[in-house]
Amino acid sequence: MLGRRPQAQQELWVATTDLVRGPGHALYEMLNALLAEAGFDRWVEDLCEPYSAAAGRPGIPPGVYFRMTLAGYFEGISAQRAIAWRCADSLSLKGFLEFGPTEETPHHSSLTNCHQRLPLEVHDEVFRFVLDLAAEQKLLKGLRVGVDATTLEANAALKSLVRGDTLEDYPDYLRRLAEEQGVEIKSDDDLRRFDQQRKDKSLKNDEWVSESDPAARITQMKDGTTHLAYKAEHTVDLDTDVIVSVQIAPGDAGDTTTLPVSLETAETNLLVCGAEHEIREVATDKGYHSAELIHTQTLLGRQMYIREPRRRCRRKWIDKPVGDQLAVYANRRRMRGAHGTALHKKRSELCERSFAHVCETGGARRCWLRGLVTVTKRYLIQVAARNLSVILRKLFGLGTPRGLNGLAALVSFLQLAVSFRHTAVNRLQNFPSLRLSTFTQRLIARAVVKLAT
For the CA atoms of 33, 35, 39, 43, what is the dihedral angle to 10 degrees? Predict the structure, then answer.
């Protein structure tokens, strides 16, 4: 017969020392210690003081606002409501925010107010503050960087699109076309049938705009679907895996247009944070290939390693600058060498890893905010949290709360292997259903003993 736990009366007073903490609190304590040693809270309060009102209801401290945004990355949460709920529910996150077990954490509306009140320059300074911490740990070289971009789904639907010239939505646009062609539309089914039969149905960004988020653009996502989206471009230090600059652009922005801005921002960040080198080698994929771009960056003292797209015929250089031709041929020679191949392997590994950490496990693939500046502010702190995880991994060998669970499982396995190391060989040899050969049994026994010792 199944037993049922009796309904017990809740205790009136509970000591805070008796409250159970989850296994993820150790990482947040390490992160808090790192930020406290660097004087983050006092620094960010002085930074945000000009943007706070002298009178009125006191808001939440800036350090709490930025910590809650950092927690969104480490917990894989993207929406501000969900971040506020998680911080209120978790004792570990309450300790990370420096709130007591009985204190109430900030509401999601407070996060929204702080996000709207603090300008982009403040978030950029917080991003550079983390880069300073990376430079102190010798994690900011700057000599070789890799650049790549991905798409972020905007907080707007395709149904919100209207014509830029007439401000009519898609159904009204179809009814006007049907009226001009003399087609009678009596119902919505007739309208859908008319839309299926017409030929030119492409939606172009220069003709359609979103009413809810005008900065978002019609973009094909990585999975092949079409959404309103933004473009996020990372510049990654290929020697240390630290993201040195981030740029958010409309989804239809060309790679050759955004690359110079990303490199200049990265160069500025490296200069301000006291990096060991200036950018001398840049590795990108074939989407960034442009003769003018390669020539311009070469004149700035940077060697470009850009994959060249396949062409149906030989490229003609008639009426083209000689410098563009020489720069493209030099880039082609570098890409054929062993150094260029190794550099691109490193770029593919680290750039894709940064997108996986920030967008997938970090929860930034879907934007819940609207506007180019607003999305940029949130994404900058997400990337700063990712850089903090790289620093923590170097200092403590642990970069995420979930990594602590894996570490605990490994310790438990080693303890189990130690307790059974004397009997493991006998158990394997005397277990008839395995039917392992003597050689295989010896290999397994050696592996168990090696892990135990």
Answer: -160
Alpha-carbon dihedral angle through residues 77, 79, 85, 87, given to the nearest 10 degrees? 50
**Cβ atoms within 10 Å, residue 257:** 11
**Contact call for residues 233 and 149 (beta carbons, < 8 A):** yes
pLDDT, tens digit (0-9, with 9 covering 90-100), for 127-138:
999 999 999 999
Sign for the pseudo-dihedral over CA of 130, 135, 137, 138: positive
**Residue whose pair of structure tokens reads 């290939």 in the numeric block:** 289
Range 188-199 burial, b when 16+ CB lie within 10 A, else e = eeebeebeeeee
Q: Assess whether pLDDT exceeds 70 at residue 360.
A: yes
pLDDT at 183 over 70: yes
Ranges 248-252, 261-265, 285-289, 440-444: which has the least confidence = 440-444
Cα(206)–Cα(76) distance, integer angstroms: 35
Inter-residue contact 306 to 286 (CB < 8 Å): yes
- What are the residues whose beta carbons fall under 8 Å from the beta carbon of 26, sequence distance 6 or more? 398, 404
* C-alpha dihedral sign at 103, 107, 113, 114: positive
Q: At what angle do helices 40-48 and 25-37 cross, to 10 degrees?
A: 70
Residues in contact with 161: Cβ distance below 8 Å, sequence separation at least 6, in sequence order? 169, 170, 203, 208, 209, 210, 211, 218, 228
